[in-house]
Amino acid sequence: MILGDELRELPGPQHDGGPDTAADLRKMALHLETAAVLEMKARRTTDPAQVATLRRRAEQRRRQAARLRARLAASGAAVPGPVRSR
Fold it and tell me: Basic residues composition bias: which ranges (predicted)?
């Protein structure tokens, strides 16, 4: 056996890794990616009303991702923490 090859247990509650968990992880990633795209569009546009709308929508997607992360963390499927992708 080589040092570092030993098995390590993950701390905290264990999760089943079922289809709901995978779907929630995909949704969380989609929300974060969408928020990043909306922010990029907001930086490129010159219309102040559109900038405000795009940033508001980006923040909504980040909040949705944060809720999903909190639910996943409670079940042991994700690391708790802030979701920021700016």
Answer: 54-70
